[in-house]
From TrEMBL:
UniProt xrefs under Pfam families: NUP
Top-level taxonomic group: Bacteria
InterPro entries per record: Nucleoside_phosphorylase_sf, Pur_nuclsid_perm
Keyword Signal included in the entry's annotation: yes
UniProt keyword Signal present: yes
UniProt keyword annotations, A-Z: Signal
Signal peptide per UniProt: 1-28
Protein name per its UniProtKB record: Purine nucleoside permease
Source organism of this protein record: Acidovorax bellezanensis
Amino acid sequence: MTRFFPLTRSRALCAAALALALSGCAVTSGGASSPAGTTTAAAAPIEVKVFVGAMFEIGKNTGDRAGEFQNWYERYWKDAKPVTVPGALNPVFCNTDGVCGSVLGMGKVNSSSSMQAILLNPAFDFSKAYYVISGVGGTPPQRGTIGDVSWATWLVDFDLGHRWAPEENTPGAPTFMPRKGYEEYRRFQINPALVGWAMQLSANTPLKDSEGARNYRLRYPDAAARRAPSVYTGTHVTGDTFFHGPGMSKQAQYIAKLYGADDYVSTEMEAAAITLVIRRSHPTDRVMSLRGAVNFDQGNPKETTLQHLDPAPGETAGGFAETVENISNVGSRFVDHVVSHWPQWREGVPAR
């Protein structure tokens, strides 16, 4: 049964005041008010041309010791306002050219959950975006050296399988077996045409080096370890653990070959997971992984793996500052070209 209450004088005054207030404004779909007879359109999403995802920053985004993000930030976003994204570890920055970036967090879960939140946020339009997953890693001394920068040709997950202790196996046999059912998750080929463009644009980038890194390289007998830094391509292996030692390095190479990928050249902890998240929303033919080598994935012949993992003061590799600068110097050649030739790149990777 509906009950009716008499309209008292106080209620009548309240009702009149409310009607007067509402008569002067209109509520838009965004929840904001504007003068009667007008509407306020919601801000159009930012068309992302290139998204740069780093994994960590040491301190601030500018002005102190640089981590993976600072050199990118100082190049593209010093004047950009941060955009807070619920679910992402850090804000997103975008410049007026459509270059956006963020610190996603270290490891598969941190980085991929941040990427998912950013991709799904309505403030951004990723429908035509290219991605540069950018960070540091380790390299086997048989294939790389401190200060190198590599573009991935393949991303291989180090963890999706069965692994057991060497003493529980036939001596010298592999201690890893892929798990069935993960075939679509454990390996991603980077678009060869995109890699070709990246190398064409960046292979001759001048790379910085340090005296500390030059001296450290001499501890290794391998020709690749002793050479000056360069830009090249190969497989990046994604693992949640900082695997070290010749045994783990051999296993990473074994897994790369088992999956039909190129030679393993860089350790990392995020790219395969981030790529899988992107694939849930968009094609992955515009995804790239860029890594700089700040350490070898194993000790020299005169040290144990534990000594390599926990070096004495003054025994570290050196070259970190130079390497993170090399990464952004190499990567920006690709980013700048895409942005400056956007009409040719917007609909897909152009022919070279």
